[in-house]
Structure formats: structure tokens, C-alpha cells
Amino acid sequence: MSPVEIILGIVILVLSVILVACVLMQSGKDKRLSGSIAGGAETFFGKTKGKSTDKLFSRLTTILSFIFVAIMIVMYILIAKAY
After folding, report:
1. Crossing angle for the helix pair 47-82 and 3-25, nearest 10 degrees?
2. What is the pLDDT of residue 81?
3. CB 64 within 8 Å of CB 19
4. What three-state secondary structure class fits 51?
5. Which of 1, 27, 49, 56 could form a disulfide with 45 if both were Cys (CB 3.0 to 4.6 A apart)?
6. pLDDT tens digits, residue range 72-81?
């Protein structure tokens, strides 16, 4: 394995952990399950802060997922060229 593949592998691992955390922190449409996981952001931050944090996590999830997919495509191309 080349150093580039190792670095990209580490970046993918870190991004996947951050993506899971961002998805779990969102309240979602059905607030029964995710509210218990996230700890009820609306009660802690107030009504408007809860909505703004949901918006932030939604945007962050979208951006990170695009970056994740782009890095996975690059990794696939690098590994395909190596073999």
C-alpha cells in the first residue's frame, strides 16, 4: 500500500465516524428514537436553537457525505490502477 492510500483510508475512517455522529444528532421526522439518542436538543438549547442545530447537522451530513463518496471514488481508482 502506498502512503496516499493509507492517508485516504484514515480520512475515510474519521469521516465515517463523524457522519454517524451527525446522523445520530439529528432529530428527524419521528422524534421518539433520535430524541432519546441525541438527548433532546430542543429542551436543552430551546426551540429555535434545536431547529438551527438540526439545520446545521443536516448541512454537515450532506457535505460530509459528498466528500466521503468523492474520496471513495478516488480510492477505488487508485486501487484499480495498482492491480
Report:
1. 150
2. 87
3. yes
4. helix
5. 49
6. 999 999 888 8
Q: In a 3-state reduction of DSSP, which class is residue 80?
A: helix
Place of cell 438549547: 45
Question: Could you tell me the pTM of the whole model?
Answer: 0.69
Burial annotation 9-43 (CB, 10 A radius, 16+ → b, else e) = eeebeebeeebeebbebbbeeeeeebbeebeebbe
User: Which residue has cell 430542543?
Assistant: 42
Distances (CA, A) of 81 to 7, 71, 73, 78: 17, 15, 12, 5
Give the other-Cβ count within 10 Å of 60's Cβ.
Answer: 17
